[in-house]
Amino acid sequence: MANTTYNRVIRKLVVGFGNLFDNITLVRYNPDNSEAQRMLVPIVYAAKEMYVKRLEDDPNLDKKIQTALPRMSFEMTGMTYDATRKQNTNIKTFASTSDGIVSQYNPVPYNFDFNLYLYVRNIEDGTQIIEHIIPFFAPDYTIKLNLIPEMGIIKEIPIILNSANQEIEYEGDAHTVETRMIIWTLNFTVKGFIFGARSNAGGLITHAITNIYKDITAADEVNFTLNIPTGVGEYQVGEYVYQGYSLNTSTASGKVVFFSPGKLTLTDINGSFVSSMPIMGAQTNANFTFTSHEILTYKYSQIDVLANEPPNITMDQTIYTIDGSNTAITMDKINSISTKITESN
Description:
This protein folds into three domains: 192 residues, 2-Layer Sandwich (STM4215-like); 87 residues; 36 residues, no CATH class. The chain starts with 8 loop residues before the first helix and ends with a strand. By secondary structure, the chain is mostly beta strands. The protein has three helices and 22 strands. Strands 3-4-7-10-9-8 form a six-stranded mixed β-sheet. Helices cover 9% and strands 50% of the residues. The C terminus is likely disordered. The chain is elongated. The longest helix is centred in the N-terminal third of the chain and has 11 residues.
């Protein structure tokens, strides 16, 4: 918990959400439908109550609020864990940075609640802005954010429109009532993520061993470790064993190729042997349960790779092994070397 890495993911989600609505233009029309006025609707990050108070603030008592409208503001109101989008938190993402190879675990999914507020002077201003916004949400709109640039992690973030509500505030007394402002509240859910700290991925892998086995078939041999206290008898090599009521109706069967106290090796296996049932001998009636088993597959080959990294190698050089030692040579000199060369990297 002492790591002070700050990924600024929440800030990026807030900025990404606000940028969706920063270029809305409102047009007012004359009675003959000709354009009378065009304006860009400003947007700021602010809570509704604070912004209403700011619009109402008038030290000289001579400014009408309608001269400050239309306006928009937005705020993040909360966040909740989203279990439906949980990823395997043991999986890491790796990247090469100026600090070397770094890693970062999968993020934690969270839903962020946002409210967008529209402050307008009249009904038509509000409905025009609403018609600029709602068609893009059906009910979601997806944006792409570069959440962790250092790791190259770019996420597609769905933004869901949940509801749109309108309220009207008035100024003046009951006899001289005058519309003060109309406030639209649009509620959104942003499906984002929270990332943990990055860590050094450790050294590079320089030694790798790969084993290649043949396909597993019924002819493969399987070693069973028998639970001696649970059974009796001795199996015979060549007899068939089974689990179930009889060999003909068995759930699993096989042929004995080796038996010694505590060890049983079978081949020609059909079905799946389970450790909770005894393995019955068809001829000897020997029976034991087993505690573990191991498939004895045939290994075709093993590839053993050991990477060497000699110092002071430039980009136009290739590493070769010459007579058992690593040597850096340029490609244009290869033809002049008579010694047998085998490429090592």
